[in-house]
Amino acid sequence: MNINFSRAGYYVYGLTYALGDMKRTLAELQVGGLLVNSIPELEKAGYRCNVSLSPQMDLLSLASQPFADLLAESPKPELALVHHSYAENTVDPDTKRDAELMSRAKYFPAALLRKFQLDHVPYFGSFASGCVGMLSLVIKAAGLLAYSDQNSVHCLTADARPEGANYDMLREKILTSDASSGFIFGREQKGFRVLGLSYYSSSRAVMPLVEIVKRSVQTVKDLVKAVGIELQGRDALFHYPNIFTPAWDMVSHYLKVPPERKIVDEMAERAHCLSSDSIISLKKWHHGNKGRIHVVFNFGSGLHLGVCLLEEV
What we know:
Elements: E1 2-4, E2 11-19, E3 22-25, H1 26-31, H2 39-45, E4 49-52, H3 59-73, E5 80-83, H4 108-115, E6 123-126, H5 133-146, E7 152-159, E8 168-169, E9 174-175, E10 179-186, E11 192-201, H6 209-227, E12 236-239, H7 245-254, E13 262-263, H8 267-270, H9 277-284, E14 293-300, E15 304-312
Parallel strand pairs: 5-6, 5-7, 12-13, 12-14
Antiparallel strand pairs: 1-11, 2-10, 2-11, 3-4, 7-10, 8-9, 11-15, 14-15
Helix pairs in contact: 6-7
């Protein structure tokens, strides 16, 4: 699926993020019983540390930091949209697992809005697209604005390791962190202009790396054609998630991306921050270079592969 937003007049701005307040090495995670892979395997994949929530914090307190930044950018939210990569994160972390049916319906966005004493704000949840959260938020926010009388959406991701789970994935050799991030999607001309987006899904449990490479390369080629731009000769940066670095190296090779244009942000130190990866790197690499193109890759469980084209304004 390709979506051409080049004439829609949508922008992403106010990008912000917060990481877990506790940084641990692979050895410390192993001692804590939080790894299923060996340390050499994760080091080979490119990881050294992760960041996680201390016992004094929970997901609500973590997400409150970027949400406060969004409110500082735009104090009166018209719409709120929250994405989670884990099912367990979709409900209030204080939810008690008892027999009461409604205890399963204490949704996370409502708890967040209550914490900031906000009411009468239509809110929506996003799930089932894993770490393709940023692109899922863009798609849903665009749909909300296209047919409503509102002008902006406060978009947030909020992901923390479910209780009892490891921080890494055995087959994929991915190390994760606890993180929350956000942005405002709206019509105000600032930050990044949204040019287009491509989204692919598969119901398979596994996708070979070679297929990820082929689909990513072809997706970029098809998307730039649909949007009507050329990347050759353009000032462009390519943002990759903190996973599968050999695959992204091959994607860069086939797309002829110079090494200085390839962004893999602090993979060794902060690991894979799930849906926050691309939001973090976009915030860091927005330098006010008007017209610069940012090609953003997302890959997540589900399985989903997405590419988004943004232009600095």
